[in-house]
Amino acid sequence: MNLYAISAKMDLAWLLRDTKYALAAVLSDTISNLSVISGVYLIALRFGGIGGMSVDEVLFMMAYSTITTGIFILFGSGNNLHISWNICSCSRSH
Amino acid sequence: MVQYIKTAQMACLEKANEGILSFLPDIILKISTLIPLIFLWRAVMSSGVDVGISMNQMLSYAYVSALLSDMMVVKTAATGWLSEGVFMRLYGRPLPVLGQLVSQTIGEWLPTLALFSLPMALISPLIGVSLKPVSAWFFVSLILCISLGFSIDILFACLSIRLRNMNWLISRIRAAIVALLSGTIIPIRLLPSGIREVMKYQPFACLGGAPLSLFVGTADPCGILWLQATWNIILWPVTLFVFKKSQEGMVSYGG
C-alpha cells in the first residue's frame, strides 16, 4: 500500500511541479470535457431529447460517462493503462 | 512550384511507404465511425423537430465532413515542431518553412483521399447519401476554409512553441474547441437559438462548417464567403507576425 501512496504522491508532484503547467492541465481537461458534454447536450436541447431520452436523461448519461472516464484516468495517468504505448513508444524513444 | 510539388509527393510517399495495407486500420476506424454516425443522425433527425435542415441534407453534411475531414480542419506537422523534430527537417531545406508545411500537409492528404474518401464516395448511393453540392460556391468556400485552417494551425503551433513541452495539452484544448466551434461534427445551425447566432461569426465556424453548409444549401453563399474572406484577411497577417516572432523561441533538446 505504501508503494501506491508513493506513486500517487509522485503523480501529484508531477502535476504541480509548475504552476503554469498545472493550470494548463486543469484548463485543458475542463475545456475538453465541457466540449464533449455541451455538444451533445445542446443537440438534445434543440431536439427535445435524443432517441427517446429526455434532455435530463441525456445530461445524466453525459455526466455518468465523464465520471467513468475520470476514474479511468485517475488510475491510468502516465499511460499506466496503455501498456502497448509504454512498450512501443517509450522503448523506441529512449 | 516544382519543388513544392516534389515536397508533396515526398510526403505522400513517406506516408505510404509501408504499403497500402498499413492504411487498413485507419480506414476501418474511419468507416466504423462514419456508418454509426449516419445512423445516429438518422435517429436524431427522425424526431420530426423542424431545425431548418432536412434529414438528407444532414446525412450529406456528416458524410462529406467525414470524407474531407483532413481539409475541414487542417492539421499540419507543425504541432510537433519540438517533440518530433519536424523543424529540423523543415529548416534544413532551402525552401520557405510555411510553404513546405503546406505542400507536405497536402501530400499527406492524398493517400487517405484515394483509399478512403474516393471508395466511400463511390458507394454513397448505396447508403442513401447524395454527394452533389447544391452550390458551386462550395469549392471556393473549401479553398478559403483550407487557407484559414492552415492559419489557425500555425497559430496553435506558435502557442506550443511559446508554452514549451505542452503539445499534448494544447492539442487537447484545440481538439475540444474545434470539435464544438467548427461545426464539422455538429452543424452550428442545429444549436439552440442565441448560441447559434453568436457562434456563426467566430473564426472556427469558417472552417469545415462553412463549406459544408454551402454543400447542402443551408446557408447564403455571399454571407459565408464574406465571413471566410474576412477572417482570412485578419488572421493571416497575425499568423505571419506571430510565426516570425515565435521562430526565435524554438527550443529543442536544450538547443
Give a written overview of the molecule:
The complex is a heterodimer of chains A (94) and B (255). Helices cover 81% and strands 0% of the residues of chain A. The longest helix of chain A has 29 residues. Chain A has one domain. The two termini of chain A are 30 Å apart. By secondary structure, chain A is mainly alpha-helical. The mean pLDDT of chain A is 81. Chain B is mainly alpha-helical and 255 residues long. Chain B has twelve helices and no strands. In chain B, helix 2 runs antiparallel to helix 3. Chain B is globular. The two termini of chain B are 33 Å apart.
Q: Which structural class do you get from the secondary structure elements of chain B?
A: mainly alpha
Head-to-tail CA distance between termini of chain B: 33 Å
Shape of chain A: elongated
**How would a crystallographer describe the biggest sheet of chain B?**
none
How many beta strands in the DSSP annotation of chain B? 0
Number of strands of chain A: 0
What's the shape of chain B? Answer: globular
Number of helices of chain A: 4
The largest contact between protein chains, plus residue counts on each side, is:
A-B, 23 and 22 residues
Mean pLDDT of chain B: 85
Helix content of chain B: 55-70%
Largest sheet of chain A: none
Regions with little confidence, pLDDT below 50 for 5+ residues of chain A: none
Top keywords for this entry?
heterodimer; A: 94 residues; mainly alpha; elongated; B: 255 residues; 12 helices; 0% strand
Question: How do you describe this structure in short?
Answer:
Chain A is mostly helical and 94 residues long. Helices cover 81% and strands 0% of the residues of chain A.
SSE topology sketch:
The complex is a heterodimer of chains A (94) and B (255).
Chain A: H1 2-15, H2 19-47, H3 55-76, H4 83-93
Helix pairs in contact in A: 2-3
Chain B: H1 2-16, H2 24-45, H3 55-67, H4 69-72, H5 86-91, H6 97-122, H7 124-127, H8 137-163, H9 167-181, H10 195-199, H11 209-216, H12 221-247
